[in-house]
TrEMBL record, chains A, B, C, D:
<protein>
    <submittedName>
        <fullName>Sugar isomerase, L-rhamnose isomerase</fullName>
    </submittedName>
</protein>
<dbReference type="GO" id="GO:0046872">
    <property type="term" value="F:metal ion binding"/>
</dbReference>
<dbReference type="InterPro" id="IPR036237">
    <property type="entry name" value="Xyl_isomerase-like_sf"/>
</dbReference>
<keyword id="KW-0464">Manganese</keyword>
<keyword id="KW-0413">Isomerase</keyword>
<keyword id="KW-0479">Metal-binding</keyword>
<dbReference type="InterPro" id="IPR013022">
    <property type="entry name" value="Xyl_isomerase-like_TIM-brl"/>
</dbReference>
<dbReference type="InterPro" id="IPR013457">
    <property type="entry name" value="Rhamnose_iso-rel"/>
</dbReference>
<dbReference type="InterPro" id="IPR050337">
    <property type="entry name" value="L-rhamnose_isomerase"/>
</dbReference>
<dbReference type="Pfam" id="PF01261">
    <property type="entry name" value="AP_endonuc_2"/>
</dbReference>
<dbReference type="GO" id="GO:0019324">
    <property type="term" value="P:L-lyxose metabolic process"/>
</dbReference>
<feature type="domain" description="Xylose isomerase-like TIM barrel">
    <location>
        <begin position="71"/>
        <end position="247"/>
    </location>
</feature>
<dbReference type="GO" id="GO:0019301">
    <property type="term" value="P:rhamnose catabolic process"/>
</dbReference>
<dbReference type="GO" id="GO:0008740">
    <property type="term" value="F:L-rhamnose isomerase activity"/>
</dbReference>
Length: 396, 396, 396, 396
């Protein structure tokens, strides 16, 4: 790929940041309040805009409802646009109301399921008002003990609810169905893996696609292979990027195994260039979203770092010599194929990216630019330190 | 469930034992030759017949081709029937010929794929000749290094091969598509999880169903939930029973976590009694097969123990009070539901099973009967100790 | 073992319940407030006393400081005794104060370490005042990113702090050093496994022993083997009992794999009867403690169930035929040895336990007794539903 | 670090290759015979010499006894030296003789244990004759079923055997005690983790150190932290390098997560420069050894690639800015510390390494040099394709 094409590709990369990544978050043990952490959706959008100003590739922000609930979503949309970003995916929350203790759309009680579905449909309406394309669906639903509920019945309840929401989606929009191995359910999670999400999507319709969160798999699962499988089936809808070693650790994407992130991007770049229409179209419509929970990191800086890690992985994937790779694969030359892939990974793309940023009028080193900008000190001064909770009790 | 119904259900349980479980097998480090281990398919069938004589619920034996290749399969079928067992699933082997080094049906080289497909079609012919209903398909196919092959291309090759075999299946037969997380491939396995197997089955046709091997999942995966999901979708075809703690350890089923085996049987018993036609029919046609690799255990005794562990799990599942369970689930009474399920598990079903065996004219304690029968000493005398290999080099 | 000896052994079993198991707790996503959940240490002690009344084997309650901080610990001790229970282990909390964001005794900043050590020493003083024998030490210390801190330096800081606390322990008391694979640290945890805890204990002195929490291991680790190893080295101090499938799920002990809990008790019963002085003494001084976080279960009922599950596992372990087992082991009779162990597990000990309870004047079925006692309705009425927090933000 | 010091450090790096990496090896399913694979110890040494000629940092070869058994070890030593390499670690094999079916030094039968110990002592004698410094001890010992053997008794047998071998070691030599989570034992492995190996080493004496095999840990375990812990305790003896995603996959080191390999080398480089005597001395005496099982790769090329992957990781670790790192750590600047570490990892060290090779008279690109040398074609012609076995049965 020549520099012109490289720069063009880099200019088209998009990483959506999540509103909830700018506020305080933590583990069940403790949430450490961060000075300057955003306190409401407007401050979150301002932080997201700062990340986009610094990186140039983070032009949208995902919302979480009701965390980001406002009276007037059209106004919110204008506010975002005035700051240079748009509203991205809408993320309904059906896990924090008390009736959801034993599940939302999988709950044995019909009224609770209806309440959850009503909230999902409200979020479809918010999509209309904010111009959002994607309804991003994660459910905490599941059980903690064998026998607690009927697994087949729960599956059917989930299917029915997804169908109803699917059928309410306006044309040109879609629902992204996320799966997760566990947490907060510890025996069985209703949408437990990509296969479960895929089976539901296939059954309910074309507007349903699978969302891959990098932290939601069992140990040792090959995520890039799931990505390749879903791309080939035309059912990969989007990502929740983050990093993990243990469980759903929600660390900065690319920090645990940067080679894995590169391999995932390699599948996506290959699919973007595929001669197969479905695969190519699917790849080009993937929603790249970050979903992290910063416990100890400065929020805005952590988000900039996350975007940069994705950019680096993508840039390396763009450098893969696909012809050499295909030739080695066809020849069964295992190690030459491995080296062809890893030659791209071994390349230091930082100079290339600095040059691209210069060409785009962006700061050459977004981290340095952020650190010297005074942004963090400013927001700490203006916003102060919001109170933070945390799952375990503290001495009253 | 009253005793009459219990006994009837117990009398209908079926566990198929594998021919390869009666010969020498081992780890990559060493195969310890066992005195009396079966040396050919006739001896394997005789051992399988002994297991059936002792337990009464193991009336068929699975074959592995070419390990069990013979000139005349009609004769083999008669031989088996003369010993009181029938030929069960046919298991093609497309992983031990040298051309399969980089895969069989997923291999980048068309000739190798054709060779593999030809063998699979040969096995369909063997099904006809032996009266077998099930073609049991496991593929070692995969890659060891990122970049080694094109993951989407491999998926498409696998799809095409499965389609061709599917379309050659006689009416009334089916193919069971097995999946496995890893081994012998260590980067990516073409049929890597139930979702991959399910997606292929769905695409290729009604004669394709998923086979669940208890040792082929990532750590912590909830197998009974996969079972429930596949039952509800009408795509659960069969099991390969064994036990594991770490990888595909291939130990005696039920030895690592007997509660998990019980939970799996609980899903099956519930599905057998389901009001949903598809679920009920699917459950009643599940092929229950053992697939183990005995490294240190006496082969026949290990197989009897395996069958008994399945019987015990099934008997406990039959004792579940489904009405009480459903009521607790509907009421959201988490701990009452857990106790309802586990009350059945806590029950000691050994007296019940001994009584059932008496009523069937079977030995009350099949292990004691086997140990006192002289069978093991007899075969050790007749067969001697067959030479055994093993993966790692030995001093020549 | 005859019934007299069995009953005697059952009468000596002890399970300590944790004060924090009676209050609201949850996941990082949400804490569902439970009606009647204990709001302060006195209510927690009353709940613990109810569990002891019902089961007869839960005569002590562990405290968490500062969650259970009071002005007058002598008074608290008397209060507990007046309710029929005693104060058990003291659990310092050095993970919820803001300065502990990057660690407590492993923190790079000396002042923070001193603050943590001062709290630990305060807890030693609370031990004196409450008559507690065990200082139960869990540290959330660790790092989230490679490079975040110097791993060897952290290790040395932890060693020094443990040494200082150890040396302050009164005679006849001890410190139990807990380890955990991860959470809330997601790159490296300072006390990351039993080996790390053991190495520290060995270095600092005889009053330091290892505490095994059943939920703190990597997937597939054999916990009973760690128990056996530590018993043989004289360094097993205690347990935190709970159950898990995935991470530190903190479910009711024995619910995921009851056979594993049985195997752990089997090691303990064997060690209690060992001819080796060190092993036997160590086993007899093990502190059996529950550490669970009930998210969806009724708190007191969940605790009764937990105690009963431990009792059942212990009773089964008492039934092991050790002579038959040793003979099979010596003979290398793998399956006979397995059957000898599992014969005990297969036994339904519920009738035996009901009889023992009758003989002790306890309710035959503690769960039924609890459910019919009105206790839960009473506390719900008296205490109401305490506000509950939760890690993730809620819409203000 | 300036270029002079870098080059000096690079010139001192050492990676020992294993004789068994040059012969045929495979999985339990199949060993694919490779053309030109070494058939005896002399051919293996010639292959090892080729790897050293190409890389300049692989000057020794580990032996496996009895796979590499010869009449005259002094002659073998001279043969190796004539080829430019020396004899490295001696690896006894106590897992392939039939009496070891239920273990070697942990076997319940005293005679079997004596046989194993005698072999270990023979290997000590081979150390003398070959000038080897390290006795590298891996034991397959363990059990497959709960109850199969007494875990504490096995531990004591292992301790006693290790003690006897330790006490027979000549001055200036040592034993490296390897641990492994599982395989070929699937319930419990006698030396199951670093803690078990460490506890034994500590008890038996100063010549015993722990050997870390990168493929022998439970999922998600932080290996670099174990390395740091053992370095600080002065008990890290050596490595068996390889890569894995799932189990003990024995792939080419650095291929699954190159960042992890870098983090391990970062700990070693830091320790080499430590002001602590014990840590520094320990680090400088670490034995760096490769232990891989090439199933599908060309043997010599795979070994060259392995050495290069280690070299690259080491070179990157040498580039870490330790002062900047320490400053960030002290300041609690989490992300600056992460970036400091990863700046070194992000650097493309291939030009630097090419320059170092030129300065050493080595081929700039060892892989290209190997591929164009005709070595592989030559040995394939001379040696042909040796017969290969494999764990599972083949049709006779």
């Amino acid at each position: 790929m020549n520099t012109h094409d490289l720069f063009q590709a880099l200019g088209q990369q998009r990483i959506e940041t999540p509103s909830w990544g700018y506020g305080n978050s933590g583990t069940r043990f403790k949430t450490f309040a961060a000075p300057g952490a955003a306190r409401d959706v407007h401050e979150k959008i301002e932080d997201a805009a700062e990340v986009h100003r610094l990186t140039g590739i983070a032009p949208s922000v995902a919302l979480h409802i009701p965390w980001d609930e406002v009276e007037d979503y059209a106004e919110l949309r204008r506010f975002a646009e005035s700051r240079g970003v748009s509203i991205g995916a809408i993320n309904p929350n059906v896990f924090q109301d008390d009736p959801y203790k034993l599940g939302s759309i999988g709950n044995p009680v019909p009224n609770v399921r209806e309440r959850a579905i009503a909230h999902l449909l409200d979020c479809v309406e918010i999509m209309r008002q904010t111009g959002s394309r994607d309804l991003s669906l994660w459910f905490a639903d599941g059980t903690n003990y064998a026998g607690q509920d009927d697994l087949r019945a729960r599956k059917r309840r989930v299917r029915e609810a997804l169908q109803r929401v699917h059928d309410a989606l306006p044309d040109g929009t879609r629902m992204l169905v996320e799966y997760k191995l566990f947490e907060p359910a510890f025996y069985a999670t209703d949408l437990f893996d990509w296969g479960a999400a895929y089976a539901h999507c296939l059954a309910i319709g074309d507007k349903a696609q699978v969302l891959v969160d990098l932290g939601h798999h069992a140990q040792s699962v090959n995520i890039e292979q799931i990505v390749a499988f879903l791309l080939d089936e035309g059912r990969l809808g989007g990502f929740h990027f983050n990093a993990r070693r243990y469980a759903d650790d929600d660390l900065i994407v690319g920090t645990t195994n940067p080679f894995e992130l590169f391999c995932i991007y390699a599948e996506l770049v290959a699919a973007e260039q595929s001669s197969d229409n479905l695969t190519r179209t699917t790849a080009r419509n993937v929603a790249y979203m970050i979903d992290q929970s910063h416990n100890i990191e400065p929020k805005v800086e952590a988000m900039v770092q996350s975007v940069l890690n994705c950019q680096e992985a993508y840039a390396k994937a763009l450098l893969i010599d696909w012809e050499r790779l295909a030739a080695a694969q066809q020849a069964g030359d295992v190690l030459e194929a491995y080296r062809t892939l890893t030659d791209a990974f071994r390349t230091d793309v930082r100079p290339l990216l600095a040059e691209w940023r210069r060409s785009e009028g962006l700061p050459e080193d977004p981290i340095v630019a952020h650190r010297t900008s005074g942004y963090q000190a400013n927001v700490a001064g203006e916003r102060g330190t919001a109170a933070a909770g945390g799952g375990f009790p503290v001495k009253s």
